[in-house]
Design brief:
By secondary structure, the chain is of the alpha+beta class. The protein contains 4 helices and 5 strands.
């Protein structure tokens, strides 16, 4: 059998490695949550539509207001991801559907990304009771606390 020259091997191996590296840089677009369609939105008639008819047309809401059940939210977003990077939100929409006390549709308002506010996370920790031990205190803390009387293996030797 004849050995394959190094130059010929590199001619085929390098393009395969390059194609493999480029395929790792994949691009994906994901839609999450409720997909809003203009045709569906047109079917909502304030003063006419009821909770039941809205749920038939739109489906169950993504969320309901926590303190009352008169406000429903239909939430959806589209994200774009390139390779291993953090996803980028391309589009976000929230449909706020409000009902009156009788269960009739009062309003349907569309919110988009311009209506959002950035919420800053609080990075505090709740203090716990007790001592804060250093690493060395933890390692050396039990030296001298053991006695032969409390040895569970004393009778087995």
């Amino acid at each position: 059998m004849r050995a394959v020259p190094r130059r010929v091997a590199l001619r085929f191996v390098l393009p395969l490695v390059a194609v493999g590296a480029l395929s790792a840089c994949s691009h994906s677009v994901d839609t999450r949550g409720y997909v809003l369609r203009e045709k569906t939105l047109a079917e909502l008639k304030p003063g006419v539509s009821t909770r039941e008819s809205v749920e038939q047309v739109m489906g169950s809401p993504s969320s309901v207001a926590p303190l009352d059940d008169k406000t429903w939210y239909y939430i959806g977003q589209t994200e774009e991801t390139v390779a291993f990077f953090k996803p980028n939100v391309v589009e976000r929409h929230v449909l706020v559907v409000k009902f009156d006390d009788a269960g009739t549709l009062q309003s349907a308002k569309m919110l988009d990304q311009q209506d959002t506010q950035e919420v800053k996370m609080v990075m505090r920790e709740t203090p716990t009771a007790g001592n804060e031990l250093t690493f060395m205190q933890q390692m050396l803390g039990n030296i001298g606390r053991f006695s032969r009387q409390g040895d569970p293996n004393q009778g087995r030797r």
